[in-house]
Automatic annotation (TrEMBL):
<dbReference type="InterPro" id="IPR005560">
    <property type="entry name" value="Csp_YhjQ"/>
</dbReference>
<protein>
    <recommendedName>
        <fullName>Ferredoxin</fullName>
    </recommendedName>
</protein>
<dbReference type="InterPro" id="IPR044543">
    <property type="entry name" value="YHJQ-like"/>
</dbReference>
<dbReference type="Pfam" id="PF03860">
    <property type="entry name" value="Csp"/>
</dbReference>
Length: 129
């Protein structure tokens, strides 16, 4: 299954699917899960990881909302979609920077996913007009 295929099946889209936006939607969804998992793992660490937990949970929520907005194709709200992509980039960069402060493998993986998601949202942002 692919989100790209699902988007192409939408009556308002067809073969004019925005591949960059579909990729951003997919990575935003995955990033939300990575951040949620990282936050959960941070809670199990012996050291104080409160800031990392908070940053990961905020990023997870923003990424989840981004994925949802990116796949909605009925009607247009380009202004809101652009703003959502921009906040997703910011949330992912903030989360990656926080996770990179820690030596935990789950934090390293989360930071990598956040950087990838931010890059994909940047690419999608350039295509949404």
């Amino acid at each position: 299954m692919s989100i790209e295929k699902m988007i192409r099946l939408h009556p308002d889209v067809g073969q004019d699917a925005n591949e960059a936006l579909a990729t951003a939607a997919r990575h935003s969804m995955l990033c939300s899960l990575f951040c949620t998992s990282c936050a959960d793992a941070c809670m199990a660490e012996e050291m104080d990881m409160r800031q990392c937990v908070r940053t990961c949970m905020d990023c997870a929520d923003v990424c989840n909302a981004t994925a949802h907005l990116a796949v909605r194709r009925t009607g247009q709200n380009v202004e809101l979609l652009r703003a959502q992509l921009e906040i997703c980039i910011k949330a992912c960069e903030t989360c990656a920077a926080e996770c990179e402060k820690h030596d935990h493998e789950h934090c390293k993986l989360c930071a990598t996913m956040c950087r990838e998601c931010a890059d994909d949202c940047r690419k999608a942002l350039a295509t949404v007009q």
